[in-house]
Amino acid sequence: MFPMRDLSPTVSMEPSPGVRSSLPLHVSPSSGSFSSFTSLWDGLRNLRNSVVSEEKRETSWIEKTFYKRECTYFIPDTDDPDRCCCGRPAHWHGDDIDEVASSNESWLPGLHTAHAPTDAFGTIEFQGTNHPTKAQYVRMSTIDTKSEAVLKLLQKQWGLDLPNLIITMHGGMANFDLSPKMKRSFRKGLVKFAKTTGAWVFTSGVKTGVTRHVSAAFGEGRSKQFKRKLVTIGVVPWGVLANKEQLVGRNITCSHHHGKTAYVQSTLDSHHAYFLLADNGTEGEYGAEVIFRRRIERHLYQQKVSKGINIPMVCVVLEGGMNTIRAVLEYVTDKPPVPVIVCAGSGRAADLISFAYQNATKDGKLPDRLKVILVDAIQDTFTCTEEQAKELCLEITVCLQRKNLITVVNLADENQELDMLILTSILKGTCSSISEQLRLALMWDRVDLAQDYILDRENGQINEPLESVMMEALINDKVDFVKLLLETGVSLHSFLTVNRLEELYNINPQCQFNPVRYFIKGLRKNLFPNYRYTLLDIGLIIDSLMGGAFKSMYSQKEFRQKYVAMRRISSSSSSTTTSRKSMMKQTSYLSDMASSNLFQYPFHDLMLWAVLMNRQQMALFMWQQGEGAMAKALVASNLYKRMAQEADADVLESGISGHLMENAQEFMKLALEFLGHCYHIDVDYTQQLLTDDLINFSNATCITLAVDVMHYDFVAHNCCQNLINDIWMGGLQTRKNSSIKVIAGILFPPFLAMLDYKSKKQLKFMPQTAEEHLEDTVEDEDSDENEENDSYDLDDDSIQQASPVRTLATSSSMPKLSDALKAGQKPPMIRSMSMHIDNQRRLSRQELKSLQKIANEKQRGCNVSVHLKKPLKLTKMTHKFYTAPITKFWFYLITYIAFLVAFSYTVLVRTLPTPAWPEIFVMAYLVSFAAEKCWELAVLVPGPLKIKLRVFASFYWNLWDAVAIVWFTIGVILRFNPSTLNASRIVYTLNIVFFYIRILGILSVNKALGAYSKIIGKLLKHMSYFSIIMFIVTACFGVIRQAVHFQNEEWSWFMLRSVFFYPYWMIYGEIFKEEIDTCTDIDNYPGGCTYGSWVSPLAMFVFLLVIFILLVNLLIARFNATCIRVIPRVREIWKYQRYNVILKYKLSSLLPPPLAVFSLIYQGIKYLIWKCRGREDFCDHGLKIYLTDEEKDKLHEFELQCLEDYVRHKENKLQTSANKRISAISERVTEISAQMDDVTVQEKSFRHTLQLADQGVSKLEEIFLKNHEIVKLMGHMVPGFDEFAQSPSRQ
C-alpha cells in the first residue's frame, strides 16, 4: 500500500563529492574495486528511482482522480453576518472576491464551491497508545467523486479484496452510555461477527456516539490476525475534523494525538484502518458524508462476491436520533432492500423502532391507539414539535411495512447472539434457495449458521442438489462445511467425477508454493502457463514421490483406458456434427461412467488431493472417513516426506520444507497411534491389517508402506515385530533355542521330525507370496477328493448333537457312521422329527462334510481335534523346514563361511596355472550368486526394467554385491591369461575385501551387530564430507612441500604419489622430523638449504594446526553428535532393518549358492507353467494374506470400528486436556466477572435509590418542622387556637 512508504523527497541517494574521497579505499579509477563500487551505487540509485517513480505514479493517479471543494462565494449567514454559510469567516475568503452574492440567495455546495486536486492523503499514525496504529486517508469531494473510483482506491491502491459482507453502523453522534450487560453483549457479538465473516465495517469514523462503542469492541478483540481480517472504514466530514491542517500534504505520514476538542470538532478514531474524508466545502457542519456514504455502500452492494450473489449488506442501529430513523427508512425501501438490525434498549431511535416493531401486527400495521403513544414518545425523546413527531411516526410505520427486513435484538438477553441475528436477517432478506444460503454461510465461514439455522429449519428434507456447495467447500478448504454436508446426505460416490477432481487439482493454491505445479515441471517439459493438469499427470507425480514400484490408481492401465475413453467421448459429443441420437447415447454413457466404480474409494482420492495441495486439515478429515485408515496415514506421510525432501533439496522458500515435514510427522504419529489402538483391541485382526492387499495403493501392504516411509517406530511396534517373528520362523513353531535346533536340522536331517510345526489354519493367516498361495490352492483342490473319503472318527452321538436336524434315538444295533464310511457302505438312515416316521432319506456328502465341520469345532473346544493330533507328512515337514527364513539364513551363512574359507585359501596360496578345487568352488559359488541376483532383479517388482533397476539399486548391499561380482569377473578374465596371472591374484586379493565386509549385512539380523552396522553407515556418510575437506587441505600442503623440496624434478607419476604420501601419514602422527627442513636433511640434500626452504616448515605448521586441532576434533564432535542421536534409537533402527533382511531370506531361493542354480532352474520352469496358465501374478513376491471376500469385509469392518473408537477417544482426550480446561476456566472467570459487574451496577442503583429515599425523608422532616413552627405561630396569633388544636375531636 503506497501510503505506508516513507520516502522523503529531501533524501538524496547521490554520493556527495566528499564522500568518495573520505573512503579508506585508495584505488585508481580503473581498478576493479572502483568499478564494482560504482556498479553497486548505480544499482541502489536505480532501485531508489524505481520506487520513487512508482510512488509518483500512484500519487498522480490520486491527484487526478480525487478533488477537494473550497468555497468561492461569500454568502453571509443570517445568524452571523460576519460568517459565510459555508461556516468560515469572511476574512478566510480573502479580499480578491469580486462578486458577493445577495444575502437572499441560498448557499449550495455545487454552485458556490470550486474543485481542485486533493491535497490531503497519506498515512496517519495514532499516538497515545502502547502500540501506535496506522490508518490511510484521502480527502475527496462528495460531488465529484465517483463510487467506482473509491472502489478502485480501496482495491488497487490500498490492496483490499472485496468483502464478504458490509456492515454499516448508524446511531447517535453524541456520546451515550450502555449498561454493562448490553455493552458486553454488543462488543462480543460484533467482534465475533467481524472476525469470522471478513466484513467491511462502515462508520462515521469519529470518536463519538455509536462509533465509540464500535471502536471499543474492536479494540478489545484486536490481535495481529484479527487486524488483518478486520476492515473498518470511516466516512468522515472534512469540515468537522480537529487539527485537519496536519493532514494536508501529498502522500505524507502525520501523527495524530487524541485530545479534547470543541463541540463542533471531532477527532478520528484510532481503531479504523481507512478514512474517506468527505469534503463539500463546509466547515464545522455534519451531513456532508450522508449521501456520499450511501452512494458508496449502494455501489458496493451491487458487486458480485460469488456466482450470482451480490455482496450482502446489513445496517445496525444503536441508539440514534431523527436522522437514524430516516436512514432506516431508506435502507428498507431501497432496491434491493437492506436488512436492518435494531438494538433494543440502547435508547432513543432504536427504542422507538423496537417499540413499534413489537406492537405491530403481522402485516406491519400499528393500531391508532399505539400511534398516539408513539407520537408522544417521539416528542418526549427528541423534544420536537407535534408535526415533526407525526412525520417521524409515519416514517416508522412505513418501515414496519417491511417488517421482514427488520430484526430487533435485545442486548440484555444473553440467549440472543448479535452475530447470529445479523447473519440470519441477511439470509432472510436476500436469499431464497438453500444452496445460496449455504454458499453465503460458507463464504462467511459460519458453520454454526448453516447447521443451526439453514439446515435445521429444513428438518433434514432438502430437495435441491448441494454438489456445488460441496465443491466450493473443498476449494475454500472449509473442513467443517464438508463434514456438515456429508452428514446432510451428500454422497461423495456420486459427487466425485473426473472433471471435478481435475478442477480441484487446478485451483490456485492458498500460498505461493504450488506442489502440483512444482513437481509436474520435473516430469513434463515445456509447460505453458495455463496448462491444465490431468489425472494422468497426478498419477505421475504420485508415482515419482512414492518411489520404488509404487503405481497409483491413475497410472494403472485400466484407469487410463477408461479415462481416455471418457475424454474421447466428451470431445466428440461437443462437436456440432453429432446427431441427436448419438448425443443422447453418449450422454447416457457418460453418466454411467460417472456413476461407475472409477472412484471406488472417493475419500482416498480426496485425501491424496489434500496432501498434494498441502491442505493438512482437509487431509486429516479425509483420513478419518472411509476404510484403509492405516494405509492412508502411511501414504500421506510418505508423500509429505518426499515433498519436504524435494523442497529442501531445491532450497525453496524458507519454511516450506519444515512445514511439509511437520505434516508428515503428524500423519506418522496418527499411523502409530492407530496401530496401537487396533492392537489393543484385537491382535489377530491388526496383524491381518498389516499384510492385507491394498488394491487402491498399488497392491502394497501397510508394513511395506511403513518401511518405505522409514517409520522406525511403526515397524518397531510389538504388533509388527510379532508378525516379523512369525515370518522369520516360517512354518516352525519352536521359540526357545531356535537357531540351535535349525542348525541341528540342517546338519542332521532326521532331527526334522522332532521339531514343532504350525497347523494349516495358522499358516493360512500368515503372509505369503503369490507363488505360495497358488501352490496351497492347488494342493487344497487336489486334497478335497481325498478328504471326502477320509475317516472323520465321528459317532452317532456327535451327529445327533451336531446336526441341525433333530433325530430320534437310534438303536444300539445301528452301525456307526464312521464304521459305515470305513467299510465303504452307504450312510445310515436318520429320521427327522419334522417328517413322518416313514419318510427317510440318505445324507449327502455335502451334509456329511458340514456335520464333520461342526463336530470338529466341538472337538477343538475340548482340545481333542483329530486334525491337530495327526502328524504331518515327511514331505510337508521337510518343505516347511527348508522354506523357513531362519533355515535359509543359517544355510546361507554356513555356505558363505565355506566360500570365504575357500576364497581366502585361494588368495593366500600360490596361484597355479590351473585352478585348484577351492578356486573352482569359489567360481561356482559366485556364478550361482550372480544368477540369483539376476533372478532377484527380474522378480523383485513388476514393471519395466527401469523401475526394477531403480528399486534394486535402492538397497545399498545390492550395489555392493554388483561391484564385487564385476570385480571378480575381471579377475577371472585375467586369471586365464598367463601374462596377467599375477594381476589376477591382486584383483582377487582386493575383491575378497568386499565379501568380508558383506558379512555385516548378513549378520544384521543380530540385535547388537545390526544396530552397530547402522551407526557405522551413518558415520561413514559424515566422514565422506570431511574427507573432501581433508583432501583439499592435504593437497595444498603436499604441493607446497613437493615444490620446495624438489625444485628440479621432471614430471612423473611418482611425483603425484609424493604429494599425498607425506601429508597423509602426518595426519596419524608420523611427521618425518628429519625431512621437515632441507637445511637439516643432509642425506637427501647434501648441498644444503634449497631456495625458500623456510616455506615448507611454515606450511607444515599451518597444516598440522588445521588438521589436528580443527578438522579431526570437528570430525570427532560430529561423530559424537551422531552417536548421541542414533544410540537411543538403536533398538528401533535394528527392528526396522530386520524386516528387509528377513524379507530377503523369505524370497530367496530354496538352496544357497552354489546349489542355487538348480533352484533357479526349477523356479523358471514353474514360472513358464504358470505363465501358460494365465496367472500373471505368479511373480508378485510381496508378503500378503489372501482372504475371502467375507473375511475381507469383516477385516474392513473391524478397521472402521477401530477408527471410530480412536477418533472418539482422541476427541475426549482433547476435551479433557489441560489447555481445554484452562480455556473453560477462563470462560467461567469471564462470566463470573460479568456477573460481578452486573451486581456492582445493581448495588450502585440501590445506593442511589436509598439516597433518594433519604433525601425524601429529610424533606419530609423539614416540612414537618416548618408546619410545627407554623402551628406554634398560629397559636400565639389566634386566641383559643391551642385549645382547639388539642381538643379530643382534633386528635
Account of the 3D structure:
- The radius of gyration is 46 Å and the shape is elongated.
- Helices cover 59% and strands 7% of the residues.
- α11 packs antiparallel against α12.
- With 1291 residues, it is an alpha/beta fold.
- The strands form 4 sheets. A 10-stranded mixed β-sheet has the order 8-3-4-9-7-6-5-12-13-14, with helices on both faces. It has a two-stranded antiparallel sheet with strand order 1-2. It has a two-stranded antiparallel ribbon with strand order 10-11.
- It comes from Magallana gigas.
- Keywords: Ion channel, Ion transport, Membrane, Transmembrane, Transmembrane helix, Transport.
- It is a multi-pass membrane protein.
